[in-house]
Amino acid sequence: MKVKVLKVRIDDAFIRADQQKLDKFLAEHQILKFESAFIKESECWSVILYFEEKKPILNEEPGKKYSAPDEDELNQDEVKILDALRLWRNEKAKNQKLPSYFIATNKELLSIAKYKPAKKEELQDIKGFGKHKIENYGEEIINLVELI
User: pLDDT exceeding 70 applies to what percent of the chain?
Assistant: First the structure.
């Protein structure tokens, strides 16, 4: 279980943005428990959320593959996975004398870090991964994700 503390300021200049941040967090995480309290000195609500990460929803539309939005904030585990994937990709590209984006694009690596596939077959759900990439790199990618 993870914990996140958010502040919702009452001032009209901040309340909308703070509420949107809270709404986004609630939509992206499975909330197990919450606590809130009004902080009179700061004129804000303090919200403590106990949560677990949600796995991104794939294939909301039939035939559509998952692609992580650019503006998504990454948690610590996702940053570690993304860094490991980038190192792996750059080394693989260097050894094969190919541009790194031939192995996997930044967007594909970001999608893997967010989705965290556990089996090679789950890579099919990520935009940009077809038979060739899965056969050539799938096992290595899954092993990297499992290690982190």
Answer: 90
